[in-house]
Amino acid sequence: MNRAAQDLLHRLARLHGVQPTYVGQDGSDQTVADDVLVEVLSALGVDIPSDGVVALDAAVQAAEEIDWRRVVAPTVVAVSGSRRTVPLTVRPGAEVAATVVCEDGSHVLAGATDSLGERRSVDSIDRERRHLQLPESLPVGYHRLVVSVDGRTVAEAAVLCAPERLTTAEPFLARRGWGASAQLYSVTSSGSWGIGDMHDAATVAAAAAEHGADFLLLNPLHAIDPGHAPLDSPYSPVSRRFLNVQVVRVPEIPEFADLPEAEQQRWLSAGAALQAAVDAGGPIDRAAVAEVQWPALRAVHAVGRSAERQAAYERFCADQGRGLEDFASWCAVRTGTDTEDERDFHRWCQWVADTQIAAAQAAAVSSGMRLGLMLDLAVGADRHAADLALLGDQLVESMSVGAPPDMYNQLGQDWSQHPWHPKALAENGYAGLRQMLGTVMRHAGGVRIDHILGLFRLWWVPAGRGPREGAYVSYDHEAMLAVLTIEAQRAGVVVVGEDLGTFEPWVQQALADAGILGTTILWFENRDGVPTEPGTHRALAMAAVNTHDLPPTAGYLEGVHLDLRESLGLVDGDPADERAGHEHTVAGFLDAAAQLPSDPALGRPSDETEAKILALHRFAAGSPAALHAVALVDAVGERRIQNQPGTTQDQYRNWTVPLGGPDGAVVHADEIAASPRAGRLFDAVDRRLRQDVPVAVLVAFHTHPLDQPGQGDAGGLNTYVRHEAAALARTGMRPVVFTRGTGPDPVVSALPSAAPRVQAEEVTVVEVPAGPGGELSKEDLAAHADEFAGNALAWLDQEGLVADEQIAFVHGHYWLSAPAARRIAQAADAPWLHTMHTVAAMKMAADPAAAESDERRAAEREIAAGADLLVVNSPGEARTLMEVLDAPRRRIVVATPGVDTDVFTPAGHAWWPGGEAEDVDPFDPELRVLFAGRIQHHKGPQVLISALGELRRRGVLAPGTDRLRAHVNGAPSGADTPDLAALAEAEGVADLVTFSEPVPADQLAAQFRAADLVAMPSFSESYGLVALEAQACGTPVLAHRTGGLVHAVADGATGRLVRQNTPQAWADALERVLQDPASWRAMSGEAERRARSHTWDDYARRLRAAVAGL
């Protein structure tokens, strides 16, 4: 082909997303052969004329006119909350209208179109290019764009609306996590049938979790061929959407127990024989496993199921839809028995695999892992696979995916998998990709995407050609990433992309912008054999020493992969040079790792090789990466290669090596928990990640943070401390909460795992003895403050937290906590923060009935003068501290409390006390008024009841009418408790008021949702968390205009403020609501929006920023 024709061919290729040149492993420019380009273009449906330059020029023109011939592309991408435009092609002057039909059926009008000034005549028709403004308010998900021109619908497009950024990895950026990575098939146990299964996965997860692991990364669990011997590679499945039945432990299917005893024993004996062969040194023999497992599964399938299990099975089939039906049909054809019973069998097998994977995930999370299972996604499916039949033209049959030559695979790679067809994907709204990702993420906390660069481009190798003879084909990465992030957000999974290899620098940035973790492999992080400092590596990544394509670290140190490649003739160059370079690199990493101080707590390694492995993993854990993966093969000392890329099964039995120790003897899954060697490596990584975690000490002397608010002295302060601790944990700190215990010794517990998005072990609650055993009143506690402080310090010393200088700050709550907070801060040389919650002088000024001790008032002045930071809830509280306590403004920081919107939300059950379980209120009055809080004079419930009496005297609430019902949710607190029931009788409103004890947060939220109005007649409040919680449920608040309530309630927008806290003023306010209840309820939406803008995560970030500024 002459130069002019070649230039046109290259231009044509680029127009269709085919790259005629690429950068090779050595940085040099490589040009794809012309005949390869022709074959790749032909696979994309592009006819290449054979009659020279003129015809090629016409083909280029046709490619340039593709977008001019259609109104809109078949799939467009939007980002929720961002302005996005879509190009449209219409005739000049046309009237265009567009609507987005959302997933939920709602319609959203798109914005106006703007002409771009581009015009072109195509097929003798004038056309112009316009931009259509997509709505910013589109929710994340899959929608449909309908375009009308001159009143007639002319085109539709799929709309992929992605989140602005995937946030699932953020907790691990705050507090780094680690996990074990394993090839599941290799991890067997005494109960396995010659191959690792989900029971073994749960066993390994529990063993790793005991040492602090957050995840267990497993190889792909994709479907195998039911009619032929399964391929050994888990990366060459028959379908990526469906599951590998060989992960099922047959005896754990409930119906297995319904088989006759003799038949059960026959299958158990057959499975045990398979495992015995592995234990004796044999490979993982998938064909032998299939010969036993498939018939065993058929026997169990024939037993039948209970009604409950049958219903669950039918729900699964309905959820999976047509795709499962088609896969079952394909399986039936493959087995040569295309009957309905056979199809039902394969549907059932998928359900059984799904249930056992779900059980393993539940067990992993229950063991303490933050993520649980992380499942791997293969690049593609085998050439002769179900996916080709199921997905049709969305895959390209005449092409195979692979990779050009690199330093580890110098002949290139052909993975024998069909690539996605970029145009067909778009025309189908990326349905195939969506369905596949949905399956992988269904029962996982994380997903690893092998060769994630395939979302951007893939190396296509034409059938019959070698892996060097390929070309890169580009994909619409925005659309691919949109589908990935939509599915990941819905499933709540962390996404890790294997982004190793040759690519443009912007690719990693695009992944990072999407919130997707990359991959950092220690051995690859060097410059000319000199290790780079781990501290300079990426934070948005999963770090590891090695990968499944490299030998275990023990083998890598020995160079076993070099021996294998040399013996197979796979080295393209001088083997001696390659070995010398390898040894130089290894020596550099070992020298760098040796510079780390040793950790005596780990114990003595068993040999020099283990010592090197420990050192390398500790060195790698110095990376800021959000996640760290520890290969299970390294934990047991394995040295054999699982997979040697670029080899066939005839050359080397890839993917068949059972997990073994240094001597090759099989190591069972249930032996890992008791393995000192595995424990040392797990602990080495966990301790390295945890050694720099800052500690936040919170002191709540007089009340336990887990006590029920509304009971005794428990109130908003308890909620405050609990959520502060949880939020600080999410920022990467280790909170330790000190409170008084009633026993003789410290009691250490954890914040319950029900705390919002926090694992139990992340927040430590220490109940410290002080004074005589049993409960003490607040008035009696002050005398024991020094004892409390001393015992708290003793516990911190015992834990080594003071000596290690890990305490970042100490935060005291309420004046009684000040002595302990001050002493701990001084001992740890850490800042002392303090929150008053209430100020005695202000309380007494607002409520003449309040009486506070001289001791308290003096203590609060000392706090104002001595604390490094005074943390207040509102600007009003800041003014109080400056005016009443002479606190300097420079030492005051306003940090607004948050609200738990996972619990307090408009969605959910609404229940009014006294009604039936599903009733809002049996009386259905015009106005339901709720008071929730401690029953004490200062909280003002007596003001509310007296106001009802005033309304009755005015005739507004005449006896026998149902205009208003009130409920008081709370318990007596302190000595100034009013008798509310007697007051209601005296005021003549006992028929309007009911009472109940305090309830947990979820039940309180149900009461808020049932209420029309939440009343807060407090004489003073530093903020008023109840107001936020009620508004988060969509319920407007009527509150006294005082303290923090002025900031918590937007007067006239989310509720109303009462200027005087008297029964008459409250009666006036309630009467105004009764006169126009519709206007009152109309504030619901704004109330919810305002509350949602207050988050505990923002509070924690504000607190940490203030401390950093000291």
Automatic annotation (TrEMBL):
Catalytic activity: Transfers a segment of a (1->4)-alpha-D-glucan to a new position in an acceptor, which may be glucose or a (1->4)-alpha-D-glucan
EC number, UniProt record: 2.4.1.25
Record domain MalQ N-terminal beta-sandwich: where: 73-163
Residues of the Glycosyl transferase family domain: 924-1088
Keyword Glycosyltransferase in record: yes
Keywords tagged on the record: Carbohydrate metabolism, Glycosyltransferase, Transferase
Family per record: Belongs to the disproportionating enzyme family.
Protein name: 4-alpha-glucanotransferase
Species: Micrococcus lylae
